[in-house]
Amino acid sequence: MAPTLKKNLKLLLPLLILIIVLANCSSHNDWHNASRASAGLAPDPATTTEAVLQVYAAPAWSWRGWFAIHTWLAAKPSGADHYRVYEVIGWRLRRTGSALRIAQDLPDRYWYGKKPRLLKEHHGAGVDQLIAAVDRAARDYPWAQEYAAFPGPNSNTFTAWIGRQVPELQLELPFSAIGSGYAERAE
């Protein structure tokens, strides 16, 4: 074997092994069976009459969760008996033509086996107006027919977009919200 080839193999072999390990390692081995149950973080809409607006984050699916999070918003207007969830999910783009999902759902679902954490919460007086502003901004999201895990647009781009359109949310996403700066660069 030529010395140059041998040297290159010595350098590439550890990198190749690392890539294989990262691609196959996951704390959630089967997304079909991963929990999507409520984490119990949101007020029960059956007993909470006031308006509630929350922003959640959970580790991204598979090995990506070591570095990045998935973010979404959940809203319950005053007197409503359910939450509406606003999020962007990449696989939906292929299936429906839009990555944007606005639907009645559990607000605080485990994200494919990973417990979410609450990033921001507003409740009570004035929150119905925030919810209306979030709904308008979500429906005006300019990248609903696009998705890229990196650099975006992705779920974090969407949540950051909402935060910029509705500054009253006072939303600051963590560094692990990869893609949250996409909109700033694209505008």
Largest beta-sheet details: 5 strands, antiparallel
The best one-word shape is elongated
Strand order of the largest sheet: 4-3-2-1-5
| Structural class by SSE content | alpha+beta
Average pLDDT, all residues:
89
Strand content: 15-25%
Number of domains in the coordinates?
Answer: 1
Descriptive terms for the model:
187 residues; alpha+beta; 5-stranded antiparallel beta sheet
Q: What can you tell me about this protein's structure?
A:
There is one protein chain. The longest helix is centred in the N-terminal third of the chain and has 22 residues, at 3-24. The chain has five helices and five strands, in the order αβββαββααα. It has a five-stranded antiparallel β-sheet. A hairpin with a 7-residue loop joins β2 (69-76) and β3. The chain starts with a helix and ends with a helix. The chain has one domain (52-186). The chain is an alpha+beta fold and 187 residues long. The protein has helices at 3-24, 90-96, 127-139, 155-165, 182-186; strands spanning 52-59, 69-76, 84-88, 100-104, 117-123. The chain is 31% helix and 18% strand. α3 (127-139) crosses α4 (155-165).
Q: What is the topological layout?
A:
Blueprint: H1 3-24, E1 52-59, E2 69-76, E3 84-88, H2 90-96, E4 100-104, E5 117-123, H3 127-139, H4 155-165, H5 182-186
Antiparallel strand pairs: 1-2, 1-5, 2-3, 3-4
Gist?
By secondary structure, this protein is α+β, with helices and mostly antiparallel strands.
